[in-house]
Amino acid sequence: MNEAKQTKRSQEKVILVCVADLDLELMDRAANKLKLRREAESAVREQRATFDDLVTLEPALQWLMDDAVAYRKSHGKKNRCCANARWYGYGDWKGRGIKERLLELVGNASSRRIVKPPLRSSYAYDLAYDSIYRRLPNCRNCGCL
Ligand SMILES: [Zn+2]
Known about the structure:
The chain has one domain (3-133). By secondary structure, it is an all-alpha fold. It is built from 6 helices and no strands. Helix 3 (60-75) runs parallel beside helix 6 (122-133). The model has no long low-confidence stretch (mean pLDDT 91). The structure holds zinc ion (ZN). Residues 82-84, 139, 142, 144 line the site of zinc ion.
């Protein structure tokens, strides 16, 4: 074998080893993700879950939490704010309530077929509901109470 061919062969070997390492790393990450998911599923089934467990199973729940936190930041110190308008979607938030989106992601009423059994429960719904709703600021001068 000439020198150029040998060099090419050893470069190919290096590339193959790198690809194999990358595959192992990806498999490790996937296995770890699966493990976290299984743990979160058990936590929900055994009714000892945290909001983070729910997010592990349905990442979109974090967006709802982020929206509640954003509302607190933008309206929490204003003279007038209404957590219920933001939650149920009326007034300035007509059609954009957080609760409506929550209903799609967790609970028995979810219309999405991809919601898996541990999330399709009133336990998961109540946990998500309470966790997110309590991050909203208290109503003030809104007249809804
Ligand atoms: Zn209000």
